[in-house]
Design brief:
Elements: H1 5-34, H2 52-62, H3 65-70, H4 72-84, H5 87-92, H6 94-104, H7 117-124, H8 134-147, H9 153-156, H10 158-170, H11 176-187, H12 192-197, H13 199-213, E1 217-224, H14 234-238, H15 245-248, E2 253-254, H16 266-269, E3 275-281, H17 306-329, H18 343-349, H19 355-359, E4 365-367, E5 380-382, H20 391-394, H21 397-401, E6 419-422, H22 437-441, E7 447-450, E8 453-456, H23 466-470, E9 478-481
Antiparallel strand pairs: 1-2, 1-3, 4-5, 6-9, 7-8
Helix pairs in contact: 1-10, 2-4, 2-8, 4-13, 6-11, 8-13
Length: 498
């Protein structure tokens, strides 16, 4: 005897809710653990390496064996996606869980977006048209620009967005982008980001589609028994990502849609039990006798609609304008953490997740704003006035938590963040007053004196900022700047590329 749809639906929703909540708590717990300086060594940030899009883009940008090896969790997820479709989006993604929560707390009277019977009829008759969703355009843009050293992961990787948002919340700063996505999910549709704009979801969807085309065994899939289907459209109305395949699929077997997140909401909605979720084998073979094949589905196609074309042009204009700001202004290269002194490569690989900022025990790493344009937006920078860099005693915690290997381990004797310089017009010693606090605080013997006047030995100075943060004048008379003003930040160029 088959289990009633209501009971089956409750069990499925409960199982998915437990998995989603558990993974979200694990993710948030990792973010909190990274922010506790009392930990002698921060835990490995393997959760931040689960995004295959971030892994592929980082490898393309860095061409580094270190980056390829660092993203081993992403390759496992990509392999599992080949056999089970977009399960990560529906069951594990912390950003997707937040979207579902936003939709769940929305009052019923605000849930105005509903598919009508006419929409169901249009989908059943193949009248929804064929289109390429915006996320596939963004996927091509993200991977293509990664080859050119332009990093778009800070707004396209769901794990980077969630991680950066958690850091900003803990730092009592408004996470504008994350908040905007949650507002859209609450006001409009919970999964509109996953459905239309997430390039990471597009990559996983295409991977799952490939596995279906290869007729691989699928360990988790929504399957249809076409003989039991009455084409009522209840599954189409319930789907959070607008997948019409459960309605239009003419044959038996697993769904092959690249848009299905395996949330399972369509399964309990089916009044005849024609849909099930579990293990299955690839795509269906052929349509049953006497039942016409319907070729069109809601998510298939190759045409770009007018709306998607306008979105693409608008997004392209914003990116060109934003990145041009940094090029036109020619702003000074900011101070970076030890191991991140190759500025061009750092910008190409850093995904702006905020892990290094949370792990820093002195909180001297802070995110950049728009002063350097979109190219440097949200990248971590070293700010001596917020705290000194204690790389020689913290074992470079920022490097250990970086998921993309944008920061590499550097021996303490080889560290060169920048070089301190003294403003003779405001320095107390140069004005004849007794001070020399900078010489007392320097851990590397880089500050010497001639009488009351401090002098900097650039060969010994590491740029740790201990002198700048303790200088009694306001603003400080001794400041750390990028060595030589070069675009590489005065540090060593990285090695280890493919």
């Amino acid at each position: 005897m088959a289990m009633p749809a209501g009971r089956k639906g409750r069990r499925l929703r409960l199982a998915r809710a437990i998995v989603q909540a558990g993974f979200l708590l694990l993710f948030v717990g990792m973010c909190i653990a990274l922010a506790r300086p009392s930990f002698p060594r921060p835990p490995a940030s393997w959760l931040l390496r689960l995004d295959p899009l971030a892994g592929i883009a980082s490898v393309l940008a860095s061409r580094s064996v270190h980056t390829l090896a660092a993203f081993w969790p992403a390759w496992l997820i990509l392999g599992a996606t080949l056999f089970s479709g977009r399960f990560f989006c529906g069951w594990l993604c912390p950003l997707g869980t937040c979207f579902d929560a936003a939709g769940a707390v929305k009052p019923g009277r605000l849930k105005y977006y509903r598919l009508s019977g006419e929409d169901v009829k249009k989908a059943r008759d193949g009248g929804t048209g064929k289109r390429v969703r915006m996320k596939y355009v963004l996927l091509v843009a993200v991977l293509g620009l990664s080859l050119a050293g332009v990093n778009l992961l800070y707004f396209s990787s769901p794990l980077a967005i969630a991680s950066r948002g958690s850091y900003l919340v803990m730092a009592v700063v408004l996470p504008v982008f994350l908040l905007a996505l949650l507002v859209v999910a609450f006001v409009y549709r919970p999964r509109v980001w996953c459905e239309e704009f997430c390039p990471a979801g597009a990559l996983m969807g295409l991977t799952g589609k490939l596995g279906s085309k290869l007729h691989l065994l699928r360990f988790l899939a929504v399957s249809k028994e076409s003989a039991a289907c009455t084409s009522c459209g209840a599954c189409y109305k319930k789907c959070p990502t607008g997948v019409a395949e459960p309605l239009t699929k003419p044959d038996d077997g697993a769904l092959s849609s690249a848009e299905c997140t395996l949330c399972g909401d369509c399964v309990p909605s089916c009044p005849t039990g024609a849909l099930t979720i579990g293990a299955s084998r690839g795509e269906g073979a052929r349509a049953p006798a006497g039942k016409p094949a319907q070729e069109a589905s809601h998510d298939a196609g190759f045409a770009v609609t007018r709306k998607d074309f306008v979105y693409s042009i608008g997004l392209g204009a914003v990116l060109v304008a934003g990145y041009s700001v940094g090029l036109i202004k020619k702003a000074a290269t900011p101070l970076r953490m030890p191991g991140a002194q190759d500025e061009a490569r750092f910008l190409a690989v850093c995904e702006r997740c905020g892990a290094c900022m949370r792990a820093c025990p002195t909180r001297c790493i802070r995110p950049m704003g728009l002063e350097g344009g979109l190219q440097k937006l949200a990248t971590p920078r070293f700010v001596p006035l917020k705290g000194e860099c204690i790389f020689d005693s913290c074992s470079q915690k920022c490097e250990k938590t970086c998921p993309t290997k944008a920061i590499l381990q550097v021996a303490p004797e080889d560290v060169k963040i920048g070089t301190a310089s003294v403003d003779h017009t405001t320095c107390k010693g140069w004005r004849g007053e007794r001070c020399l606090i900078c010489m007392e605080r320097c851990r590397f013997g880089a500050v010497t004196n001639q009488g009351l006047r401090p002098f900097i030995d650039p060969k010994k100075c590491k740029g740790c900022g201990s002198c700048e943060i303790t200088c009694p004048t306001s603003p400080p008379s001794i400041t750390v700047r990028v060595s030589g003003g070069s675009s590489e930040g005065g540090g060593r160029r990285r090695v280890g590329g493919l």
